[in-house]
Amino acid sequence: MAGAQDIRRRIRSVRNMQQITKAMKMVSAAKLRKAQLKLNAARPYASQLQGVLERLAQVQMDEVHPLLQERSVQKVVYVLITSDRGLCGGYNANLIRKTSGLIAETKQEVKLVTVGRKGRDFYRRGKIEFLAEYTGLGDNPSYNQAKEIAQEVVRLYVKGEADEVYIMYTEFVTAMTQRPAQIKLLPIEKPEGKQSKQYIFEPSPEEILSNLLPKYVETQIFRTILEGKASEQGARMTAMSSATDNAKDMIGRLSLAMNRARQAAITTEISEIVSGAAALE
Amino acid sequence: MAGTFSLRIVSPEGDVLKEDVEFVVLPGGLGELGILPNHAPLIAGMDIGVIRYTVNGSVRRAAVTGGFVEVIENSTIVLADTAVLSEEIDLARAVEAKERAIKRLAARTNEIDVRRAEYALRRATARIEATEGKK
Q1: Which part of chain B has CATH 2.60.15.10?
Q2: Which of A112, A133, A249, B20 is most exposed, with the fewest beta carbons within 10 Å of its own?
Q3: Residue in chain B lying closest to A223 (CA)
Q4: B40 vs A contacts (CB less than 8 Å)
Q5: Residue at A64 is within a domain
Q6: Average pLDDT of the residues in A229-235
Q7: Is A149 contained in some domain?
Q8: By residue range, what is the domain housing residue A90?
């Protein structure tokens, strides 16, 4: 049986851990709020851009832009958006599981672009080729970082390194729920839209389109990175919250065991004294 | 008065401006574009430069670095890569950035650096211009 002293030591170490998980929970709650604000701030731009794209798509153009052109698919690229750091529950594991499942189903050649350390580390040991990897985006990713990634992806697509590009990311549903999700990035699907008003285009619709499409890719990547960040903080907050609760339960159980051990020691001591005294009579 | 129409400036980092204005001048891709109320539907590319907009007779400014503009049904939406209102521009920083860009252009290392420096120079110049009209 563990002595009261040993149990007391364990309680102390559990309590220290609880303090750490509690602090992490509060930090990620604050970061979650920030990430959510950024996500909401990015929304109007994304929806307006989508709107302009829809209206542009109605215009008849002589040639199909390369980013809209569907090709026979031989090479598929997945852009995997994971976190740099762990301690966020199943956040990375869930997404990697979904991605691995998809890769197994894909008959074509698969290559990866990873954003975040966790995804990179997981697939580094595997056979899948990496086309690019990005790490160290930080808690507050900027549009320029997304732009850099987007430009590389577009370059790969135009060069023919990829015939289809998907983004694998974690959709932020609520602080408690995050869902691994997949969207098709390239070729850009021509959005449906009603025939609308006659627009004046300046310069030509073709030129505007070729400026707009890369931007559309950028905003898609930016949005999914922001969704991922918010999800990461949400997952971390939930994980740390349950870790704190578990530590509390454990402290309770250990205190009970410690009191019992102490009581047992006292009882033994008394019965020894009593029997000692009895022997003298 | 011809009345007003709504002007909205959004960038990927967030909403920058939402206001009823009387007149807007935008740095269009093919030259400056003036928009008055009841303008015909328009989609245009935008260059780096200064947006001037008139609210209650007084002209205000914002610096943008490229993007698009859509005009429809008396509302003008500017989709800017980046956008800063003149009162939010840090003039000292812009001046510093301009000098840095000029120095870098004078040094002339390689192709990409030159393009980036030129971009930085134009952006800084637009920001400085946007603050000058203020006083």
Answers
A1: 5-86
A2: A249
A3: B12
A4: 200
A5: yes
A6: 94
A7: yes
A8: 27-236
Residue A174 burial class via C-beta count within 10 angstroms: exposed 0-12, middle 13-18, buried 19 and up:
exposed
Read off the pTM.
0.85
pLDDT tens figures, B48-59 = 989 999 998 888
Q: How large is the angle between the packed helices A205-280 and A143-159, nearest 10 degrees?
A: 120
- The pLDDT, as a whole number, for residue B133 is 61
Domain B89-132 has CATH 1.20.5: yes
CA A139/CA A84 separation, integer angstroms:
9
A141 CB-near residues (< 8 Å, 6+ apart)? A222, A225, A226, A229
A199 falls within a domain? yes
Residue with token string 């400085």? B128
Residue contact A200–B41, C-beta within 8 A: yes
**Contact predicate A65/A186, CB 8 Å:** no
Number of domains in chain A: 1
Phi and psi at B33, nearest 5°, equal: -120, 125
Among B12, B13, B30, beta carbon nearest to A203 = B30
Q: Which CATH number fits domain B5-86: 2.60.15.10, 3.40.630.10, 3.40.50.1980, 2.60.120.10?
A: 2.60.15.10
Domain CATH code at residue A97: 3.40.1380.10
pLDDT at residue A257, rounded to an integer: 92
Whether the Cβ atoms of residue B67 and residue B81 lie closer than 8 Å to each other: yes
Q: How does pLDDT run across A134-179, given as a tens digit for each residue?
A: 998 888 888 889 999 999 999 999 998 889 999 999 999 988 899 9
**Closest CA relative to residue A103, chosen from A182, A33, A26, A39:** A182
Nearest CA-CA partner of B68 in A166, A64, A211: A211
Contact B60, B93 (CB under 8 A): no
Please check whether residue B57 touches A, CB under 8 A: no
Active-site residue identified among A53, A88, A230, A235: A88
Assigned domain for A31 exists: yes
A27 is catalytic: no
- Could you count the other beta carbons within 10 Å of the beta carbon of residue A160? 10
